Amino acid sequence: MKAAPEAQLRLLDLQELDTALDRLDHRRRALPELAEIEHAENRLRELGDALVAAQTEISDIDREQKKAEQDVDQVRARADRDQKRLDSGQVSSARDLENLQSEITSLQRRQSDLEEIVLEVMERREEAETRLRAVEADRETGDKALAELTARRDAAYREIDGEAELTKQARAGVVTDIPGDLLKLYDKLRDQQRGVAAAALLRGQCQGCHLQLNTVELNEIRAAAPDDVIRCEECRRILVRTKESGL
């Protein structure tokens, strides 16, 4: 392949710009905020699950408390009815009176036990409410942290995208100075060589694979026409001759 020396030199400018774009792309994908955002989102999902669990627990406790209070009311109502019967004098039989008094005493004990259960359930509800408030506070803190991280990420994106846009504009200007067939080869090698398609020959060393060329190879390059497109024998990248090539 043939190309004017000036066009070949422009390949180095193009390579530098493309390398800069690759770095910007890597920087965009490797922003520390991305990992922090993922962690924050996972934490918020955990807190969401914890919130549902806390709300469900309170709902279950409320049903339990309602049932316990209903049991207390039923026992109290029955004890009140028995007490009224006892106070009314309607029961005259000594045995019936004894049985009624015994039942009232039993109902009072049962009411006391049930009231203890209600108090215990109420205490559990207070504890559950405390846990719920703690989860809600953690989630609010997590939401704020995620918002801050997202804002930092978006600001970094804007900065990177701005640099990338300027670099792309500069690249477009360089591309116009490079023949189509040379540019096609460059693009093909970029895909094959992990982004580096053109490298300078610097003091007898390929700057693509960083290997020193032997005497035979250097003599072949010295003998080549200025517009010959040279390839590194080791890495097959386009080898661009410069004033510092050592030829």
TrEMBL record:
InterPro entries attached to this UniProt entry: CT398_CC_hairpin, Oxidative_Scav/Glycosyltrans, Zf-RING_7
Residues covered by region (Disordered): 63-94
Lineage top rank: taxon: Bacteria
Biased composition (Basic and acidic residues): 63-87
Domain CT398-like coiled coil hairpin: 14-193
Residue ranges annotated for the C4-type zinc ribbon domain, each copy included: 206-239
Pfam family, one: CT398_CC
Name recorded for this polypeptide: C4-type zinc ribbon domain-containing protein
Annotated organism of origin: Actinoallomurus iriomotensis
